[in-house]
Write a structure and sequence with these properties.
By secondary structure, the chain is mainly α. The chain has seven helices and no strands.
Length: 132
Amino acid sequence: MTEAGAALLGEGLAPESAKLAAAMASGESAAALSAAGDLLGSHAAALALGRVEGLARAQHIGGCDAAAELGMGPPRAGAWLIDQRHALAQVCRWTYEASTATGKRRDDFLAQANRAAGPVVDWAFELDGVRR
């Protein structure tokens, strides 16, 4: 994930998060559920990548660049994130495409990135014992 791509995924995240927090604080469960759905729809890729990074830091797993990935070859069976590898690659691809596009094409690529992040979001929720 490029820095430009990560920044692009985070655009608008703060207001969406604030909307969810306000709905939760007000005790309006229907509004909170709606805001949570909006946030997952518009920023699933950012939330998924943030969760993966947080888990990696908690396990003291460092970053890895593309050259190192190529040199190491395919992951071993049972490797951390092996089941999410394809989805994460798709998120990175669509985010890169979005970062080089403008207008509707940019929006379409971001939508693809958010859809691709769905399995990673589900996996992250399941780690916490939550089924979406």
